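Much of our argument rests on the idea that a fold can be written as discrete symbols. Part of our work consisted of pairing the sequence of a single chain with a tokenised description of its backbone. No coordinates are needed to read the tokens, only the vocabulary itself. The record that follows shows the chain in one-letter code together with its fold in token form.
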Amino acid sequence: MSAASPAGGTHDPGGEGGQGRERDRTGTPRNYLAGAERHRLLWRVGPPALVLLLVCGWIEKTWLQPQPNPPPAQVDTVLARLPAEPAVGDAVRIATEEAKPGGDGGAGTSPPTDRHPRGASAAALGRVRDDTLFRSDDEPAWSDLCASLAAFPAWPPDRGLVRPVSYADLHGQSRALRGQLVGFRGILRRLVAVEPNPARDGPQPRWQGWIEPDGGPPTPIVVYFLDVPADMPRGLNTTETVDVSGYFFKRWAYQATDAVRTAPLVLSRSPRWSPRRPAEPGGHRWGGWGIGAITGLMLVTWVGLHLAARAPRARPRDATPAWDGIDVPDRHPLRFPGDDGPEPGELDDGGREP
């Protein structure tokens, strides 16, 4: 007994094993490996699957993707005008430890742990002013800090002596941090040589670096180095990662291309820098092997599909001769107790056999 199939064919419920077999309009079973059947399934399943994939991607990107960290707050470094020479009344009183016996408390010629915890005398640091160019009153503190750097027993200093700071700390707490040993990490954007001042005695910085600190904002910290590694890249366009430890000097005013701006100024002996390892020859070997393997797999798949499409297909065998000579008895429907109507083989009221 056959029934109409929703797909347009017929459905035989009496197939082998009790499982129905879907048939097309001609009565033969559907061949789902045929090209027409594959195309039909592709157009039925492909567009809805593509739409579902796009919707899921949009949902993931809109609601399920983690939000990026907010950008660091910008710091306004524009200076409206250079202040006039400040009066003595705005001097900053800096607390410091008493000099040890034998120390004169003058120019810092020894490590800060021995003579000046801040790298320079309190009197010299008190004459430094923020938001200014280099001034004559900066000379004593500048010389003290350079001498302390040169006399430091080991460089870079022990991390316990260095106070980690950010750009916001240096910009907003310049008075509290003046003369302290601070440390930060960033990208060296510029490294140029500077001429030493012949009027100064003792060690002097010979390199000026502009460093973009980690964590932002994208405004520089200016560092004067007594020395730099011999093989360190130099110039106006560098991208080297460095760790800097040094004495904070002041919030320095400089002439930028658009306006007068300010930047934290640090004095350091030398940056902590490691050269980048050059790429090993043949380092892309695994990538080349991977691309070759994928290309070979695609080629083998294409050849296999092409050969399978050209192979002759076996026609289904006609099973009709196998039934010749076999007597199949008539099958009467089963009858259950309570059914109305005549028994099998009896005549109904009209004289007809059911």
